[in-house]
Design goal:
Blueprint lengths: L13 E5 L3 H12 L3 E5 L5 H9 L3 E3 L13 E4 L4 H14 L2 E4 L12 E5 L2 E5 L6 H14 L3 H17 L8 H10 L2 H7 L2 H12 L5 H10 L1
Parallel strand pairs: 1-2, 1-4, 2-3, 4-5
Antiparallel strand pairs: 6-7
Helix pairs in contact: 5-7, 5-9
Length: about 220
């Protein structure tokens, strides 16, 4: 199987998870992190999903799945321990032309979920095309050590710089060499080490006066 890699914008999209256990809870968590509107259908649910319902974070329907549950959905995830039910969800989704993922059953999916490293706006995904989820998990753990939390702050800073430049008379095509120079001169490492004064010196050397780390991060927070 050759998959087509893609990143989906699921903000406010109506997504359905069928299943109420720990696997379903993990799938729900990832959907919520990406801004989806999530409905869970299952006659029994774990404490984590109950808590999300109590908070008003998800819609929870405590009954079994029916084909009509797919109406109006953007995507569906089957996360039950009933193979026949999972197949039924997959068949219904295919007929309705919906995006469908069935946990641990790649043959019944028209998309699969990679192993994810999330560092703010930096998202690294690892897929073995369903051949070895265990290896994908091991590789993710290795890469997590290489890509630390400093990448979250670094990308927020880079985004704030970009917005600032776009608001000036800088031509967009002139931005690329500026960013490359910041990278070549070690901006990421300075962010990692928390060297604010050195960051400011580098910003002003490359970008000119008026670029201040704390002010840029404040604008990123406000944005």
């Amino acid at each position: 199987m050759k998959y087509y890699p893609v990143c989906l914008d699921i903000r406010n999209q109506d997504c359905l998870v069928v299943g109420g256990g720990a696997v379903a809870a993990r799938k729900v968590g990832t959907l919520l992190d990406c801004g989806a509107a999530v409905t869970v259908i299952s006659p029994a649910v774990c404490d984590e999903l109950t808590a999300l319902e109590t908070e008003g974070t998800i819609a929870l329907v405590r009954r079994g799945y029916a084909a009509g549950d797919l109406t109006g959905r953007f995507l569906v995830i089957g996360a039950t321990n009933d193979e026949a039910l999972n197949r039924k969800i997959s068949e219904d989704a295919r007929e309705a032309r919906l995006l469908c993922n069935i946990a641990d059953f790649p043959e019944a999916c028209n998309f699969i979920l990679p192993s994810i490293i999330n560092r703010g706006d930096l998202i690294l995904t690892i897929s073995t095309s369903g051949q070895s989820p265990a290896f994908a998990k091991r590789l993710r753990k290795s890469l997590e050590k290489l890509f630390g939390e400093e990448y979250t702050e670094f990308l927020r800073l880079m985004g704030a710089i970009r917005e600032n430049l776009l608001a000036t008379e800088h031509a967009p095509e002139a931005h690329k060499p500026l960013f490359e120079t910041l990278l070549d001169k070690g901006l990421l490492e300075l962010v990692r080490d928390g060297k604010t004064e050195d960051i400011n010196r580098l910003l002003q050397e490359v970008l000119g006066e008026g670029f201040d780390y704390n002010a840029l991060m404040q604008s990123a927070n406000n944005g």
